[in-house]
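Feature request, filed as a ticket because there's no other form

It would be nice if the structure record came with a short human-readable summary line next to the tokens. Right now we just get the raw output. Example of a typical job, pasted below so the devs can see what we mean:
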Amino acid sequence: MKVLTVVGARPQFIKAAPVRRALERAGHQEILVHTGQHYDDSMSAAHFRDLDLPTPDVELHVGSGTHGAQTARMLERLELVIESHTPDWVLVYGDTNSTLAAALAAAKLRTPLVHVEAGQRSFNRAMPEEINRVLADHASDLLLCVTPEAVANLAAEGIRTNVHLVGDVMIDALDWMLRPGAPASGIVRELGLEAGKYLLATVHRQENADNAARLAAILAAFNRLDETIVFPVHPRTRRSLPHGWTPSAQLRLIEPVSYRHMIELERGARMILTDSGGMQKEAYRLGVPCVVLRDETEWTEIVAAGWSMLAGADCQRILAAVREFRPPAERPPLHGDGQAAVHCVRHMELAHASGAHRE
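Raw output as currently delivered:
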């Protein structure tokens, strides 16, 4: 098979790495296309190095911009790339503008499309990510899901053909990073931290970073916490920090870090506060309690298991969660068997052999 994989943002680089290894082991050709949605070293190249991903075969350099402008540039350039390479599959991950643009380009060109992490729903159409994932699912020919809930979500929308439960390739990537003999990061020591004695926070989603009131409430909570809190600041969030705002002595703002550094910071944290979907899953796998800085989450199974809780952007709720939230002793297995990438490739092989493209 010839697979054209489209990535553009940090979570997609992570997801693509184990699938690339599985494709190589199975003897398939992959053409890796980077849209350039995330483009600076800390958000892009550093993750490629950590994940042992090669330099992309095609780089589109779309950069930032409004949702419409960014997606339009991607769509125009991806059409040309797909036409020139004539792949058996266009492969997309998750819910970014890169996902949507590639899904639309593949659908318009009648090229079979596979969506990894299909069926996730927050049921909040105000989120750009929700629109992206819904449209990508309805354009896809093969839908590979992380959870049974995702399979049920697709069925509720009338999508029941070529839908498979495979588990989470992000967990494959995490397990690979934690494999015996993997290079250590050392960032906890470099920052003078002690494992279990600090909080880790990230804020990057549009609903928080681009909403002055929500961001102010989150920052107010961070400043009132009486524990060390490490806060790698996403470029979008840094641009939105209130003029004149000063972090407390306990709040340590640092630049975005590589995937290897982030996993070590997550692993050593007492608790994680985040609006990232990927970090919710990583926290669960690592056994670290997670406070979700959103009003809803796609990963409801982690909330149901008692290992994450929703605090929104409410200062008092965040403070109460940090003080009081304690997960149960049990942490049932979620998100698959750690071989999701292998399952993805196998379903792609079977669907390709049987002619998966829906008419």
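Something like this underneath would help us a lot:
Residues 67-85 form the longest helix (19 residues).
The chain has a mean pLDDT of 94.
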